[in-house]
Here is the input.
Amino acid sequence: MKPGFFRSLFPTPEFLRMPSAGLDISDKSVRFLCFAEKNGVFTIGKYSEEKINPGIVESGKIKDEHRMKIVLAELKRKHKLNFVRVSLPEEQAYLFPMNIPIVSKKEIRENISFQLEEHIPLNVSDVVFDYEIIRENADGYVVQVSAVHSELVESYARIFTESGLFPVSFEVEAQAISRAAVREGDLGTVMVVDFGHTRTGISVVSGRVVVFTSTIEIGGWKLSKAFEEDFSADTEEAEKIKRSRGIELDEADGKNPKKVMSVISALCDEINKRFLYWHNRKEPIDIISSPIEKIILCGGESNTRGFPEYLARSMRIPVEIAGVWANAPFPEHYIPEIPFNDSLTYATAIGLALADSKHG
Here is the structure.
């Protein structure tokens, strides 16, 4: 397996290129979305979320290939999908900066491969990598490298092709999310928090390049369990309380949501640890010196009422909900058919789909 095919796994001649869907696999579901353009009008095309059974995917690794292929084949049949851009789990990826001496741009990739084993505990022959140039100066380049084990990519590629889907590219999840969550033209340094069902992904994005990622094993399911226990509610009722009232709870109702606030506090503490690490880190390559200006929230659990405000108070930094459609060139007055709250769960798929064109 040759390195460097995140962006072009199987290069396709331009005249044969077909619209591709961004496809996001998590431990609990598969989501996809693609855009459509007709007569110069850019809109949302197909999209869907399909739940998958426990045990098929764990921490981004496909554990049951047979059942995963059944899910993907059904997705292809039901929605007539062919070409897809696929996210890779950030838990399985390595992201790091690297100095490259003055060489031609054609030689950057080769130079990176010579240095890879100094940065990750894998042999270069076992790695698939890609890179983005952060800075160019008189001494050469500073690049941000993303690398994953070739076995992971090969397994994904095999499962998709055997399911009848054609993977155009693979991309680390955090990179796709940043393409949707960070507005084009926003070249500052921001923290993106993807508060999902099973875990929370954190990334620092500077100049629209992902320069740091981390994963917290706290997700919405823990919060839901806390609501069940605090309010002696069943699963359905607890979800209603979480969505309608969230952590903006009225003390007059006699409820003391200790477990809810314990989960929220633990999550905020973990986010703060990453925030402090960024500002106090000491790396051999000073890629970015600017402080984090704000936090951008996405993921379905970021809908929890009161959470953005609580996080802003806790972190003492502006917190905003991602406008995941901001980089899609929709016509004026176009209203996406996906409700705003639901759109936050599609951030990865949207970011992948945006890579299908020059937009985003």
Q: What stands out?
A: The chain is about 30% helix and 30% strand.
